[in-house]
Design goal:
By secondary structure, the chain is an alpha+beta fold. It contains 14 helices and 21 strands. Strand 1 and strand 2 form a beta hairpin. Helix 4 crosses helix 6 and helix 12 runs antiparallel to helix 13.
Length: 487
């Protein structure tokens, strides 16, 4: 047997041995067997992908500035986002050096069953073609595309968090360029005699001892934190996708408001706090209080929050939250989400909707970062949109389908149809097409409707950008790697 055969056989045996584990554990353990060029380190609080390559690529000197970003990637891994062009999305992401990424989903049950069938089939037949058709975890698909741009890209991904016994379907990840950034121990995560390598990241533990009060009912999902070093600059990086919905149960509502703000009704909190948003504000209040407590209890003073808060920055409660936290400041007040409509109340939207994504930075303690000049990356405009438009934009300035657009449409549709037809699964112990011709025809119709037909309607004018990349735009700020770090 050749070397590749030995590797694949080992991979199959390893997966078979793991088949009795939870889906979460299998996701962690088997990826390295399938993708031998990507190392996978599995811990209770996180999974670390490509750590070895990233570590060997790190250079403390070199580029003077670090681009710190945050990006909600719109349910990566769900049927809702199945038409994404990851090559385009990662081309945008590759312009940054470290990115907090929200809305990454776990491998679903359908993919798990598909993978199980493939492995069983491979074990019985040794047909290596089967190994080309498994479903990788959604975060790994992004990482694989990132590494085509730069092999040193790595990922620290949160494990599923449980809040009040609920399984959280979302994960938060820190993608980092290994040549520019390296993970280091996080003091908050170094609990329970954890090893140094296990202490670089964790879900936060906002205990009563740390925060000063009980906040156990506040979070819908726990924020994720990790520590990094880039040149002279080291920092704790905190990220979260703040809960969108707010509980309607009156008793729980009162408890959340009491724990977060010490009030019993959201009306006491002022403009912008409603029955739909009070839980978002409560989570963000405790995040800010955690950041204050972190600086008080641990050595590291450079603490940065970046994420999707689902809250507009224009409301005055932000100032109160930031002030109470000891002088943090909110950055990014421009729109960060896509409006699919061309017009809103007869005014052109330019594809822009809500201001939900923000940085929270302490300007005095984190002078390395030029937070005041942080910005939104509008990938649907100007030069950034060139690659996407050249492949997918089929309308002209008048909003109608052009002759060149027809050719783009057909080329993209043919490519998508061929891709769907190439996918295989196992049925009756045989490797067979995953989809029937009827299934492919139906899915192709949906694909063309969502990517191309929507472009020709004012009500869905900008929807192609949401379908192909995300409904959010990344935010970014520049931090110095060479300035002396005082902590």
């Amino acid at each position: 047997m050749n070397i590749l055969g030995i590797i694949l056989a080992y991979a199959a045996n390893a997966y078979a041995a793991l088949s009795g584990m939870s889906a979460e554990r299998v996701d962690c353990e088997w990826v390295s067997q399938i993708t031998p060029n990507t190392t996978v380190e599995c811990y209770d609080q996180f999974v670390h992908y490509n750590a070895k390559v990233a570590s060997s690529a790190y250079r403390a000197r070199g580029q003077s500035n670090l681009k710190v970003a945050s990006f909600n990637v719109l349910y990566q891994g769900s049927k809702r986002s199945r038409f994404k062009d990851l090559s385009l999305m990662t081309e945008i992401m590759n312009d940054f050096d470290i990115i907090s990424v929200q809305e990454i989903l776990n491998t679903d049950s359908k993919s798990e069953a598909h993978n199980d069938r493939l492995w069983k089939y491979y074990n019985e037949t040794q047909d290596q073609e089967a190994l080309k058709h498994f479903d990788l975890p959604p975060a790994v698909l992004i990482l694989n595309e990132m590494r085509k741009h730069d092999p040193s890209w790595a990922l620290i991904l949160s494990r599923k968090a449980k809040v009040d016994g609920r399984n959280d379907i979302e994960e938060v990840g820190f993608f980092y360029r290994g040549s520019m950034v390296k993970p280091v121990m996080n003091e908050h995560c170094a609990f329970g005699n954890r090893s140094k390598v296990e202490s670089i990241a964790c879900a936060i533990r906002p205990t009563k001892t740390l925060i000063g009060r009980d906040v156990s009912q506040v979070f819908g999902r726990y924020p994720f934190i990790a520590s990094f070093k880039s040149g002279n600059f080291d920092f704790a990086f905190l990220s979260s996708h703040i809960v969108f919905g707010s509980p309607s149960d009156e008793e729980l509502k009162t408890t959340i408001l009491q724990q977060a703000f010490g009030v019993s009704t959201y009306e006491d909190l002022g403009v912008g706090v409603t029955s739909s948003t009070y839980a978002r504000w409560a989570e963000m209040k405790v995040v800010a209080d955690f950041m204050k407590a972190y600086k008080k209890n641990y050595h590291e003073q450079d603490v940065i929050f970046a994420g999707d808060t689902n809250l507009e920055g224009r409301f005055p409660l932000w100032e109160t939250i930031a002030k109470d936290a000891g002088g943090f400041e909110l950055e990014i007040l421009d729109p960060t989400t896509i409006s699919v409509n061309k017009y809103r109340r007869d005014v052109e939207t330019n594809g822009l909707a809500s201001n939900y994504d923000h940085f929270l930075v302490h300007p005095q303690d984190t002078k390395e970062c030029d937070a005041k000049n942080s910005s939104v990356v509008y990938y649907h405009q100007g030069e950034l949109a060139r690659g996407l438009n050249s492949r997918y934009l089929v309308r002209g300035q008048s909003g109608t389908l052009t002759s060149v657009g027809k050719k783009k449409w057909k080329r993209a549709a043919d490519k998508y149809e061929a891709m769907m037809g190439s996918l295989l699964t196992v049925r009756n112990n045989q490797l067979t097409p995953m989809f029937s011709e009827e299934d492919i025809a139906l899915d192709l119709q949906i694909y063309e409707g969502r990517i191309f037909e929507t472009q020709l309607q004012e009500s869905t004018y900008y929807k192609l950008y949401q379908e192909l990349i995300s409904d959010h735009f990344p935010i970014v700020m520049s931090c110095s790697r060479t300035q002396s770090d005082d902590d």
